[in-house]
Amino acid sequence: MNTLKFVVCVLAIFLTGCAAPGKSDLSAFQTASPRSILVVPTVNKSLDVDAPNYLLSTLTVPLAEKGFYVFPVNTAKFVLEQEGFYEGEQIHNQPPEALANLFGADAILYVTINRWDAQYMVLAATVTVEFDYRLVSKSGVEIWKATQKMQYSPQNTNTGSALGNLIVMAVSAAMTRVAPNYLPLTQKANQTVFVLGPTAIPDGPYRKAGR
Description:
Blueprint: H1 3-16, H2 27-32, E1 36-39, E2 43-44, H3 51-65, E3 69-70, H4 73-82, H5 88-92, H6 96-103, E4 107-121, E5 124-137, E6 142-152, H7 162-178, H8 183-196
Parallel strand pairs: 1-3, 1-4, 2-4
Antiparallel strand pairs: 4-5, 5-6
Helix pairs in contact: 3-8
């Protein structure tokens, strides 16, 4: 690698944090050609017990916008509980064929929460979410997967004075600590993996023309 290429690579890593992922292989997805998707409760590896419910509430919109029928998550959760399945890990360990057959679904979306946290310093705060996504066909074949990490640090307004800037930064960090807002990050992560990024899934059969 010559010096110029090395510098470019270093700058790219510094600016983006990681190499840009390549286009996903969607051949298995296209072969399965799902029309309906069952979103099952998530596996939560974070310390926030509310994270799974918040995440579930954001998953159906981008999938529906892509043109798939998505089973209502609250109804699906209720049905699974009636079958004795309460925890995300327990559900993820069930045969996908059995879960799909229970609802008549063409594919199942499994999501794992790896990060859902906020880190604080006196004058700064960073909110982070990180998810693993997997789509498995009704025959048990993995047809798509993605990983997405999003971070947010509140931007502080320049007040024109050093002391004023410090006060604004401290207040902004304190407000984020009291009530970190995970939903915008979560919605952006879902939009990126399903709709906008290199892992975007093909349009489903119910995609509206012009959207």
